[in-house]
User: Fold these one by one.
Assistant:
Number 1:
Amino acid sequence: MTFFTMAVLAFVIIFILKEALPVFREVSLIEFIFGNEWMPVEGIGKGTHFGIFNFIAATVYVSFLAMLIAVSVGLGAAVYLSCVASSRARTFIYPFIDLLAGIPSVVYGFIGLNVLVRFFLKTGVHTGSCVLAAAIILSVMLLPYLVSSSSESLLKSRELYLKAGTALGVDKWYTIASVIIPASGKSLLRCMILAIGRAMGETMAVMMVIGNANLFPTLLGKSESIAAVIALEMGTAVNGSTHFHALYAAGLVLIVIMLAINFGVKNLIKKL
Amino acid sequence: MESAIRTEDLCIVYGKKTVLQGITVDFPKNSITSIIGPSGCGKTTLLLSLDDMIREVPDAMVSGDVYIGKEKTSSMPQSELRRRVGLVFQTPVPFPFSVYDNLTYAPKYYGNRDRKNLDRIVREKLEMVGLYDEIKDDLWKSALKFSGGQQQRICIARALTADPDVLLLDEPCSALDIKSTSIIEETLKKLKEKYTIIIVTHNIAQARRLSDKVVFLKDGRLIEEGDAGTFFNSPEHPDTNDFLGGVYG
């Protein structure tokens, strides 16, 4: 099984590398990563440009903002489920959380369009589409993963340590904050890695509410994520063209960012 | 002998199942009392009712009273009760911190933040369980990295940091080897000079080695109690005789 997984991962990376590398015959790596002009088709008096810095920034910005929201809400929900709710309540609530995870992302996108984008439009945000809307909708999508996996590890720690704290006369919330949550720290970080991977790769819902404009991301401004630009343009890119290879290269960058975060957090966990 | 803690007509029901019926028993000060009896007789339930931890068990209903001296435990704030009655579990559960942080956890919660004072508490309690010389250079090492026996002694020391009058132990040696068991037994013998110790044990030989007093339960009822010598040498009740003779267990 491990060999199969490694083989699939190697295949994906080799395939993307093969399709991505030709773009660097025409665009330098530095220009591709740090350039902020993306003009895949020649305009009047203007050549093509393939700079994805704004897309990288938007992907990282939206994902981390979504994580920030999801972790704050999700950790609270996980603590409630593992340390406060009765086992009967847990049995009742868990299926709903699983159901949330099963909702297709396009449905979240619709909700984002109809609720969040309208709300931001009313509050004066031009067109309503913005990075914050994307981060909020993404955080809702991350919640079920964060809540179910982190409440599992918190529950294990609670079973171990809550009684020990209570037996010392220590307040339940003091034990939760000072022992149970720190004891689950590594597992919580692992849940976050999984969630951030999902956040960075999420396409449809983010694409529907972020505005899809090649702009440096600001909280209430439009922007465009790497996954969104690939999804929007892959259908129109001519097979074998620089544009086609540039989109693969953007995908490669996304994989590299995700792997870097993965290894970074895993190293951090080892040191903890 | 003056009693440190006693129960009066204590009854405990889990849902519809009666686990303890009308238990009236006292636990003398500065002595070791063993609670023994066959599996499911209510030993642990009786132990947990002494510091009210029984209320943490879902569906547990308690009637009757527990007294520390002349004070009813039901009228004491729970944190105060649990500070005065320490509890050590069957499986050692050190917090996933250093030994030092484990031992300063309760004192810090109770407002003791003075570093010198905390250092003194750590040293004093580890000495009480005979562990200081063994691990004095590893106080900042994770408590989880020590052997089972050492972890259990760390847990006993941690229970002592809240300055209890009574120390409850629920089969503290059941997961340990012979050597660790004997070290813990020696520790408990020393600790009884300062604390009242109540221990639940399955091990009759251990009860015989350790106890000053023995409480024998069967089917949630108190069958017999008395000083260890009389209890083991000339038990009054036929059920006690059968239990000690290994007819059931």
Number 2:
Amino acid sequence: MTKFWAPSRRSFVKGGLAAAGLSAVPFSSALSAGFPDRNIKVYVPTREGGGADRNLRAFTGVWKKYLKTNFEPSFYPGAAGRVGYETYMGKAPADCYNLLFGNMGPEMLNWVVKKPSFSLDDYFYFARVDVDPSVVFVSAKSPFRSIDDVIAEGKKRTLNVGTSRLAHPASIGILAVGEHTGAKFNLIPLSGGKNTIAGVVTGEMDLGVLPSGSVSKKGVKVLRSLLVFDEKNRLGARLSSFDVNAPTANDHFGTKLPPLVSARAFAIQKRAVDAHPDRYKAMNDTILKVFGDPDYKKAVLKTKAPWENIRYGDAAACKTYAESITAIGERFKPLMTGKKS
Amino acid sequence: MEFDWDIFAPLFAHTLTFWWVIIPAIFLGLVVGAIPGFSAANTIIILLPLTLAMDVEVGLIFMVALYCSSRMGAGIPAILVNIPGTAGAAATPLDGYPMTRAGKGQQALAISFVSSTAGGLLTTIVALLAMPWLAQVAFYLHSVEMIVVMLFGISLIATIAARDTLKGLIAGFLGLMIGAIGADAVYATPRATFGFLELYDGVPLIPALVGLFAVSEAFLVIEGETILSGKGQDLMRKAGWAETMEGVRAALSRWWHIVWTSLIGLVIGVVPGAGASIAAFVAYQQSRTFSKTPELYGTGHIEGLVAPESANNGVTSGTLIPLLVIGIPGGATAAIMLVVLQYHGVTVGPELFIENPELAYGVFTAMAVTYALMILTILPLSRYMSRVTMVSTTYMAPLIIAFTLVGSFVPREYLFDMYLAFAFGVLGYIARKTGYHTAAILIGVILGPLLEQYFLRAMKMSQGDLTVLFSSSLANILWVLLILSVGFPYALEYRRKRLKERE
């Protein structure tokens, strides 16, 4: 009997691997070509109607054109956003069909205050959409005309400061100003930007701290801005008080604070990227196209959000930002946890 | 921002031309309001792609009509099968459902529809006329004042406890304890969550609501043939159009009751963050306090149904005032409307009334037109809707359980919420069988977390100084009114007893 094919063990293994490779290549390509074949769910750890919602809708409204799919936002604002992160990491399948759209600043500070149940290495931010500096603001009816008025009053009595949550870059900003000047500030978490603005406008709070986008949108007839925590006041007169543009904290007080900004970005589970690098690449490639699309600028301007704050950042930029905000968060941890007042 | 009468008549006529969008929105709102778990807010979110694509005026009218009608729709299952569609309708079954069991479901529906419409219409007109002044309410009702407003609602527990003090207080306390589950409002520290992520945000309202009322009711009604009493079955068989007319007459004859309870709703609605559930409970409590027959509340008393229904519809126009006048939404639905307005580049706030008065005032004329069209479309249906109570419990009980468990799942899409609704159902069943009042538990669950939130905020602001609770004149007036309102029934009862003794 003639042996038609008698492979050695080594050639058998090689052949097997080659066959597996050959079959895997077209299969993988087919998946990549087919991605996405259904809607992508986006977990948002804040309330609907807020800054992240507005920002996300403007972005995905254009992104869907390039990725050829729709996006379904789901909002999980509970426990200072913690519910959203825990739900995403605990329940969402790691298949690139589930993303998280969060505010990196408050989130990193959240983890400084209390570690989540999952490992921080299990996910990462890969596309920053905007950079929104924190501002100190007052109601248009407030007696405070400038930050110096606030400081002078804060040296006489403790001022109540409305903030969306304690663990927020804006909260850290006003605490740092208090530490530098000796003014006393009492942070009152009001659960979200809208409630914070309501607290300030209705006079319950002496002043408030929030990202600039929420404040500038209201206009100077409703809210006056007194201080910006960034390298410069990029929005000019839109963040001003009595025709004087709000100065930056570092310029005004000579501090050396890093930019205390909110930075909204898309995050993804690391497992999803490891399992589907082609899908991750498809998302990254199309995201870049959105920033160059004039429709995106139109969509942003339509929501009255400042276009100046739209600044793309890749995974490396997101990582750098997260590390810097975590470092400053550690400094103010006792104040954010109520262990020191 | 003074109201200009010259634009009202043409604006009203103009809004009427949008009947083609208002009527479908009314039916949609009635359906989503009646289904537990759905609400105007989450329906508008689902339909955002549609409303964003519409012209801003059409989109706004659609949302307003849906908002108003969902509020009315929530009362229908609350009255007929003891299932409040939303937390705002939680006080409705207290007297609505006993009416149904007595065979007066059709009448109860008519009372609810007329009270809701009259309350909604009246507060819409008041909102139009007094918008600038009403917007100021938000500037005076701060955390301290809201603590007292909450206590008005929570004092209902004491009223319920008056029938059986120990059991009433135990039920109320249990409700407050359940309401305390979840992360605290200041430091977001989870408490009593037992490791369940689903409880971080507190006990979700819909599963608690449908569990305590509807699921426990399903367990109970299975013991009988229908949800109706023996006499009630006879009444329902004979019921005709006269029952509807009797309901209309009963509601209209209590016009003054509708007026003042809907105004309570309007004022509470103006405060950002306060909601229809607070208004409904406060109105119910006040209605009972000033009633000549307080002992009839909870047994199917007409005024006990008129008060919460008028108040929760009064909230509807109230929540839109801070949105339009100072640019701050008064509630979840108003917040979603803001998204749509912003998308269309509309700036809300005082300038809206100068730049686009048709749109600003148009919101309220849309409300008025919605209520007018709604009563015409829904009132004739009350006769047919009430027939659902004749269905045998063999079908009704499993239907209620299935329907409400699905409703519990809808808002957050957690299976956990279905189990939770079932657990609350068992709790409600045991409570009812042993004479504990489920309403007392529910008041604690709904109002407890809100009271805690305002209390913690006030404490944080005063840095732990309890005297802050008496730091404002308005709060002190409210404290006095609260003490009077809680003490008044007891004083009245004491006086009655004394008079009887003398006789």
